[in-house]
Design goal:
The protein is of the alpha/beta class and 107 residues long. It has one domain: Hypothetical Protein Aq_1857, Chain: A (Sandwich), CATH 2.60.300.12. It has 2 helices and 9 strands, in the order βαββββαββββ. The strands form 3 sheets. Strands 3-2-5-4 form a 4-stranded mixed β-sheet. The protein has a 3-stranded mixed β-sheet with strand order 1-6-7. 23% of the residues are buried. The mean pLDDT is 86.
Length: 107
């Protein structure tokens, strides 16, 4: 089981944490929403809870709750810039479909 970061994503998370001045890493999760069923949640990790699984990649701690990990295990998180737009993107080997706008997915 693992969640990984591209170099671009790791650099961006490191910058965010440095600017913020606190936090232990990146919290990655999912929520039931969207037209396809699930969407990703990404935030700062300020603590590790009892049901969290912690990975470390490229010097960044990635915190995921055990229930979410069942759906996103093996996901690679990337950070993509396209003109003025920039966002984290996810390569999840478990998905079976995505909505047309790319905001939600099905497992």
């Amino acid at each position: 089981m693992a969640i990984s970061l591209t170099e671009s994503a790791a650099e961006r998370v490191h910058q965010y944490l440095e600017t913020r001045g606190e936090g232990i890493g990146l919290r990655l999760g999912i929520t039931a929403t969207g037209c396809s069923g699930y969407s990703y949640l990404i935030n700062f990790a300020d603590e590790i809870k009892a049901d969290d699984i912690v990975f470390e990649d490229r010097g960044i701690k990635i915190v995921v709750d055990a229930e979410a990990l069942k759906l996103i295990d093996g996901t690679e998180v990337d950070f993509v810039k396209n003109g003025l737009n920039e966002a984290f993107s996810f390569k999840n080997p478990n998905i079976t479909g995505e909505c047309g706008c790319g905001e939600s997915f099905t497992i």
